[in-house]
Amino acid sequence: MDIEIRQEPIEILPEYAKISIAFQIETVFVVEAIKNGLGGIIMREEKIEKPYRKNYDAIPGEGPASWPKQWDISKWEIISAFAGRKRIGGALVAYDTPGLNFLDGRKDIAGLWDIRIDQEFRGCGVGSKLFQHAVICAQKKGCIFLKIETQNNNVSACKFYARQGCELGAINRHAYKELPDEAQLIWYKFIGE
Prior knowledge:
The chain is of the alpha+beta class and 193 residues long. The relative contact order is 0.17. The chain is globular and about 50 Å long. It has a seven-stranded mixed beta sheet, with helices on one face. The protein is built from four helices and nine strands, in the order E-H-E-E-H-E-E-E-H-E-H-E-E.
């Protein structure tokens, strides 16, 4: 399959948003503190009793339509994947955004804010190509880290980031008030020299 990767202006965000981010959950990483955390934290993959579909775009206040209302996204970059004329995936790199706590107020960190691939094209290498271009995009901005957030219920994303050379840098089991069963996992890819 011939995949073309393009950097596009932020104005195409509505087109980008048409690609579903929804995914199937069949296993989760159970996050457990040993000796109240003094003995470390372990994660183990477990199959869940009732698999379900998760769609973060369906949560009020989440998803591409809400981002320009919350932040100045003028410095964000969209990287798109095409098979012929069909948009099959995209990645969004956030950079230098006041009020976006995820970037820790640093200009040497870019965030892989979002990555999505059309259901039909998942598992075909599209994500790896988008990730590689997100790294290049962040490096061009002078960043030394690409930071990524996911959750313990997105096991395939966690394994994907590990394959891309990312390191799990933080686990927050209490990050989401509205989603108490989900733990926040923060990944870092060192991209500096």
